[in-house]
Specification:
With 287 residues, the chain is an alpha/beta fold. It is 36% helix and 21% strand. It has a 7-stranded mixed sheet with strand order 6-5-4-3-2-1-13. Strands 7-8-9-10-11-12 form a 6-stranded mixed sheet. α2 crosses α4 and α7 packs across α8. The structure holds zinc ion (2 copies). The site of one zinc ion has 4 residues, from loops.
């Protein structure tokens, strides 16, 4: 084979590989969101879903400890999920014990983002139960992932939106600065959106979750990251929530007192006062 035919062969190979990769990845990327929207709509049984707040800087039930950070446990979904772990493991584990949530019963851990007030309780939790799948943003440092693996836990690195278990999804990692994923639970009445700190913007996150699942938004809860915002900008966000058709709201953690007051005034009976020890029962979420 002379040099020219070798060059031709090389060019043909490059073209072939390029064509194949486009054929494969183009439609695949578009397909993910469509698959989520269509999936298993007839098989939802949401009756047993309950969300217990086990770590927050606001108190709901006396006798529990508060500290800066957020964590909650989702039951009644296919797997029992620990979403974030707060900032301090002794607070986390003591609240879990008082709320009669056995760490060994947790199947899945979802970490929203790398900040200490959301991942601080992880080590001691894994000491109690390392037989869990841990969903974390791909951008987490390598040594963090290594440490989690060394406990024996299995890691799932999230970048795009993804299914976590039946009717439970991650928005995928959002945000230009701090990378953060949000948990979505699909119910018979629409989706429940649970945020950690909402660094990518609470409205962006809710829009993304709604686009992804093509469903009504039943509840948005967690940190809304609106501390120190003016009354005007919070009111704008509240009206965007109304436009998005959000039925119930539960701002806590980094949402700020003013945000909580303004949401409560607007949402009235559909405002959920969240703090450590609050349990949100699916059956109570109807108008
Ligand atoms: Zn944060
Ligand atoms: Zn936070």
């Amino acid at each position: 084979m002379n040099r020219i035919s070798l060059l031709l062969l090389l060019i043909l190979t490059v073209c072939f590989v390029w064509a194949i990769s486009n054929l494969h990845f183009g439609p695949f990327n578009i397909g993910v969101e469509e698959v989520i929207a269509k999936e298993n709509k007839n098989h939802i049984n949401s009756q047993g879903i309950e969300i217990t707040v086990i770590y927050d800087n606001y108190l709901f039930k006396p006798g529990l400890k508060t500290s800066w950070g957020f964590s909650c446990v989702v039951k009644g979904t296919e797997k029992m999920i620990l979403f974030d772990t707060g900032g301090n493991s002794s607070v986390l584990l003591s609240n879990m014990e008082k709320l009669e949530i056995d760490p060994k019963k947790i199947d899945l851990v979802v970490l929203s983002h790398i900040h200490g007030d959301h991942i601080g309780g992880l080590d001691d939790f894994l000491e109690q139960n390392a037989e869990v799948d841990v969903y974390l943003p791909q951008a987490f440092p390598r040594n963090f992932k290594e440490k989690v693996r060394n406990y024996g836990a299995k890691i799932f690195e999230v970048q795009e939106n993804t299914k976590i278990c039946e009717n439970t999804y991650s928005t995928g990692v959002l945000g230009m600065g701090i990378k953060e994923q949000t948990l979505i639970v699909r119910t018979e009445q629409g989706i429940i959106v649970i945020t950690g700190c909402a660094h990518p913007g609470i409205v962006n996150i809710v829009k993304k979750a709604k686009d992804l699942l093509k469903e009504d938004v039943l509840l948005v809860m967690g940190g809304f990251h609106l501390m120190g915002q003016s009354q005007g900008s919070i009111e704008k966000i509240i009206s965007q929530f109304r436009n998005l058709g959000v039925h119930f709201v539960g701002p806590c953690h980094c949402s700020g007192d003013t945000t909580r007051q303004l949401f409560q005034r607007e949402y009235d009976e559909n405002y959920i006062n969240i703090g450590v020890g609050k349990v949100i029962y699916y059956n109570e979420l109807s108008e």
